[in-house]
Amino acid sequence: MSDTYSLTQYVDDLRTIVAETSDEDEIIRRVGPLAQRVVADKSWLQPKYYEADEEQGFAVHLLHEEPDHSLAVILVNWLPGRGTPPHDHGTWAVVAGIEGVEHNVRYERLDDRSRPDYAELAVKKDFAANEGELVCIRTGGIHKVTNETDRMTLSLHTYGMHINHTNRSQFNLDTNERKEFIVRVE
Ligand SMILES: [Fe+2]
To answer: Is residue 174 part of a domain?
Structure first.
């Protein structure tokens, strides 16, 4: 689609969707194509979105959140060879690729969740997310993202709630430790 579709229109449509349904599968199904429209129209991209966060490995730019932290729209750029630990989001997530290819690994939980600081994960699948493609994750879904290319990659992340306000988890595959995952936001 080549029509213009601004971030403002996108946020308006997100508000409409969550006002009309609380069904997470329906929200994801409706948000996905709209996120693809936003990333197809790259006119809103600003030079600052390409500024790297060397320490974190990925830079997080908050584009929108509601006053109660819901409907967070976040741009993330990823440095070559860098990425996240396995993590969940504590809310639904729709990620649309803007530039480059991001490597995703999806995990399932094997333990009975009886210990708050412990988790056993197993790889469920492994795939490359290209420009314009979607990665959609329900609440509780676990993944890890890495940039295995030699150039910065960019993607647009939309969450039901700002991810620093969901008490979400990161997982250590070597030690099976679970702890909170807070990211630095520009
Ligand atoms: Fe994620």
So the answer is: yes
Q: Could you tell me the distance, in angstroms and rounded to a whole number, from the CA of residue 44 to the centre of ligand 1?
A: 23
Cα gap 31→23, rounded to integer Å: 12
Could you read off the pLDDT of 132-152 as tens digits, one per residue? 999 999 999 999 999 999 999
> Is residue 9 scored above 50 in pLDDT?
yes
Distance 86 CA to ligand 1 centre (A): 8
Quick check: pTM over 0.85?
yes
The span from the CA of 88 to the CA of 144, in Å, is: 9
Residue 51 lies in a domain: yes
Rounded to the nearest whole angstrom, what is the distance from the C-alpha of residue 41 to the centroid of ligand 1? 23
Q: Based on the structure, what is the number of domains in the chain?
A: 1
How many angstroms separate the alpha carbon of residue 30 from the centre of ligand 1? 19
What are 146-185's pLDDT values in tens digits? 999 999 999 999 999 999 999 999 999 999 999 999 999 9
CATH number of the domain enclosing 54: 2.60.120.10
Is residue 6 a part of any domain in this protein? no
63 CA distance to ligand 1 centroid (A)?
Answer: 17
